[in-house]
């Protein structure tokens, strides 16, 4: 369909990119971007653009993508724990300065004929356009003002994080924990220009309060940085900063907000990017989602006979992809929130756990892209020499490893379906009364670290005290519930010392093997039945 007037609320990456794409698709249309801030007040450090996103941008607008690539900085990633490092290759992943990305996008938007009005505050009521693209970010005033119409709600995480920078370029991205007298902090840091790196640092609320950051946050004016926190963290991560200090830019402690909307459209207005949905930064998704939204919206409008049909097609096409990434991001956030509980793992095994944490990267696939890390990680898991770990058939190799728990011995990590009836039983008020001394527990959690997860760990601990030797975790046989069983299994292993068995469907054998290799369960059982 042809549009004569398009207004965009918000001049972030998604809004600017959408404006250019729509202007190129509708050369005669008036396309106007309203951005309340000014370019000189742009804040932020680096953003990451992954290989798949780069391919999508290349197909949609190769001219803009060429400039993004030229300004970006490719890098691998290392995990640094206990003086040891595990390095993985990130393919075509690049970091780019957020101000530079915005400059590129605004330059190309203006070259296409887009009118960008900086310092312009506008609302839906102010605009007389056929289509209004609402791209005004996670704190979207439009979405907030029409929360009921969009069916909007926001989940706030318990952990805290802040964005900072440093005036040098790291050799690679790094994931590194640092333990202080107050608790553990973790940095996700990566280079994004020849002389700059992003340092994102996170911690749990207990550590944050113990370090006194609740007081420094309250004392920091909204437009300034929490300098007390930056000084503390610069000393904490001095090993990785190499004598440099952390740089703030409106840097303060935040809690991640996950935005969900039941509907992305209202009349002729459509939400895009963080205004419609957010996904945790540990999967590097904010800029990706916004720019890919812009491509999908352009495609939907171009191919539809009228606007209602176009907006419905946009949401129908994008929602499954967004919801899938939000679920991956949710699992990734929970993994990072609980990271200190895994610091006992050798670094290569920890890297295997990291890469398989959401179920998005299969163990065999990871072995194909980073064979030496996987070989060392699996050797650490199995207690063998790395030369004895094959790179073909790693799933079967993991499942075939022998296992011992106390006086018990198993020839492999994979139990047959009949073992559930002989080894486990639903616990009553007392201890086990037969050889079936694994407490069978049906798991229906979504967050293994919330109060329901805490209650389950306490129950498992009480059962162990009564003579039960461990837990057999069962439940719905879809993949999502299996991944959650593996997550709670890790808590049970680490916090009770009990033997853990997790069952799952045949289609999830790779997930079970990754869970075993990562310390999320001791044994696995493939079954199609639900207790």
Task: Describe what this molecule looks like in 3D.
With 531 residues, this protein is α/β, with parallel strands linked by helices. The chain contains 20 helices and 25 strands. Strands 8-2-1-9-17-16 form a six-stranded mixed β-sheet, with helices on one face. Strands 6-5-12-13-14-11 form a six-stranded mixed β-sheet, sandwiched between helices. It has a six-stranded parallel β-sheet with strand order 20-25-24-23-22-21. α3 runs antiparallel to α4 and α13 crosses α15. The radius of gyration is 25 Å and the shape is globular. The termini are far apart.
Task: Report the C-alpha radius of gyration, rounded.
Answer: 25 Å
First-last Cα distance: 53 Å
Q: Write down the overall mean pLDDT.
A: 95
Amount of helix:
40-55%
Report the strand count: 25
Helices, strands, pairings?
Elements: E1 5-9, H1 13-25, E2 30-35, E3 46-49, H2 51-60, H3 62-71, E4 73-74, E5 77-81, E6 84-88, E7 94-97, H4 98-112, E8 115-118, E9 131-134, H5 141-145, H6 147-150, E10 152-156, E11 160-166, E12 173-180, E13 183-193, E14 196-203, H7 205-210, H8 213-219, H9 227-236, H10 238-241, E15 257-261, E16 265-266, E17 269-271, H11 286-302, H12 307-337, H13 347-355, H14 363-369, H15 371-382, H16 394-399, E18 403-405, E19 408-410, E20 414-415, H17 419-423, E21 424-425, E22 438-442, H18 451-465, E23 470-474, H19 479-496, E24 499-504, H20 509-517, E25 523-526
Parallel strand pairs: 1-2, 1-9, 2-8, 5-12, 9-17, 20-25, 21-22, 22-23, 23-24, 24-25
Antiparallel strand pairs: 3-7, 4-7, 5-6, 10-15, 11-14, 12-13, 13-14, 16-17, 18-19
């Amino acid at each position: 369909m042809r549009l004569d007037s398009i207004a965009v609320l918000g001049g972030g990456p998604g809004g600017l990119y959408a404006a250019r794409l729509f202007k190129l698709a509708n050369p005669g249309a008036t396309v106007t971007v309203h951005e309340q801030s000014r370019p000189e007040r742009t804040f932020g450090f680096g953003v990451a653009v992954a290989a798949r996103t780069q391919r999508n941008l290349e197909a949609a607008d190769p001219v803009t993508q060429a400039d993004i690539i030229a300004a970006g900085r490719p890098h691998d990633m290392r995990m640094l724990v206990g003086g040891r490092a595990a390095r993985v290759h990130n393919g075509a992943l690049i970091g780019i300065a957020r101000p530079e990305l915005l400059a590129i996008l605004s330059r190309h938007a203006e070259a296409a004929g887009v009118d960008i009005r900086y310092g312009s505050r506008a609302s839906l009521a102010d605009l007389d356009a056929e289509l209004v693209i609402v791209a005004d970010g996670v704190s979207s005033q439009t979405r907030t003002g029409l929360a009921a119409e969009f069916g909007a709600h926001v989940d706030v995480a318990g952990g805290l994080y802040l964005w900072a920078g440093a005036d040098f370029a790291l050799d690679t991205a790094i994931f590194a924990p640092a333990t202080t007298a107050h608790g553990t902090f973790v940095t996700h840091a990566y280079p994004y220009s020849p002389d700059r790196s992003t340092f994102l640092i996170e911690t749990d609320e207990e550590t944050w309060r113990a370090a006194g950051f609740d007081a420094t946050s309250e004392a920091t004016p909204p437009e300034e940085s929490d300098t007390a926190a930056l000084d503390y963290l610069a000393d904490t991560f001095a090993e990785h900063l190499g004598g440099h200090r952390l740089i703030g830019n409106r840097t303060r402690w935040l809690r991640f907000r996950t935005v969900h909307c039941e509907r992305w459209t209202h009349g002729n207005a459509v939400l895009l990017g963080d205004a419609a949905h957010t996904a945790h930064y540990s999967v590097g998704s904010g800029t990706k989602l916004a720019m890919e939204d812009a491509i999908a919206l352009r495609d939907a409008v171009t191919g539809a006979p009228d606007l209602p049909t176009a907006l419905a097609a946009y949401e129908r096409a994008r929602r499954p992809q967004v919801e899938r990434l939000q679920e991956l991001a949710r699992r990734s956030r929970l993994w990072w929130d609980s990271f200190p509980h895994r610091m006992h793992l050798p670094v290569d095994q920890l890297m295997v756990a990291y890469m398989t944490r959401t179920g998005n990267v299969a163990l065999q696939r990871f072995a194909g892209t980073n064979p030496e890390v996987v070989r060392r990680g699996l050797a650490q898991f199995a207690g063998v020499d790395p030369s004895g770990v094959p790179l073909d058939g790693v799933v079967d190799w993991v499942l075939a490893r022998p296992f011992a728990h106390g006086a018990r011995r198993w020839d492999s990590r994979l139990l047959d379906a009949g073992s559930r009836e002989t080894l486990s039983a639903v616990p009553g008020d007392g201890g086990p009364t037969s050889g079936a001394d694994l407490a069978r527990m049906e798991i229906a959690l979504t967050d293994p670290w919330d109060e329901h997860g805490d209650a389950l760990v306490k129950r498992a601990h009480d059962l162990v005290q009564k003579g039960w030797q461990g837990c057999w975790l069962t439940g719905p046989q879809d993949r999502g519930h299996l991944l959650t069983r593996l997550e709670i299994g890790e808590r049970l292993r680490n916090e009770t010392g009990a033997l853990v068995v997790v069952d799952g469907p045949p289609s999830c054998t790779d997930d079970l093997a990754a869970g075993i290799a990562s310390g999320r369960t001791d044994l696995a059982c493939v079954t199609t039945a639900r207790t």
